[in-house]
Design brief:
The protein is of the alpha+beta class. Helices cover 26% and strands 36% of the residues. The chain has three helices and seven strands. A seven-stranded antiparallel β-sheet has the order 1-7-5-6-4-3-2, with helices on both faces. Strand 3 (40-46) and strand 4 form a beta hairpin. The protein is globular and about 30 Å long.
Length: 120
């Protein structure tokens, strides 16, 4: 996994914290919850111009395991303290302006995309 820095300096807000609904509100969309489990919550988020997936985790271990598995499928992720956003590079770049976090570009593995990847 390689980590991209996006824009440098004070342009990026502090990394957002909170639950799925709080992150969605800060992102400017309504969370359509797809998975509501004890260890993670996952929702699609569409603000009219962009679409992405938000995932929140109960603990750091769950987030680390999810990211390790996701690395096999490639893609661009925005990673916060207890959450991950998944989307296209332009979507993630725009979302970073609202949520802060670190942009991660995962190596493209055998999966070729998220179609076969269980994200929750």
């Amino acid at each position: 996994m390689s980590v991209g820095c996006g824009s440098e300096g004070g342009d990026t807000p502090d990394t957002a914290r909170g639950g799925l609904e709080q992150l969605a509100a800060r992102a400017g969309c309504t969370a359509d919850v797809q998975t509501d489990a004890a260890d993670l919550r996952q929702a699609t988020c569409d603000d009219g111009a962009r679409r992405y997936v938000l995932v929140t985790f109960a603990n750091a271990r769950g987030q680390a395991e999810w990211l390790d598995e996701a690395n096999d499928y490639g893609g661009t992720y925005l990673v916060g303290g207890s959450w991950v956003a998944v989307g296209g590079p332009a979507d993630i770049s725009a979302l970073r302006e609202r949520l802060g976090g670190t942009v991660v570009d995962a190596a493209h593995g055998h999966g070729g995309g998220h179609r076969g990847h269980r994200m929750g």
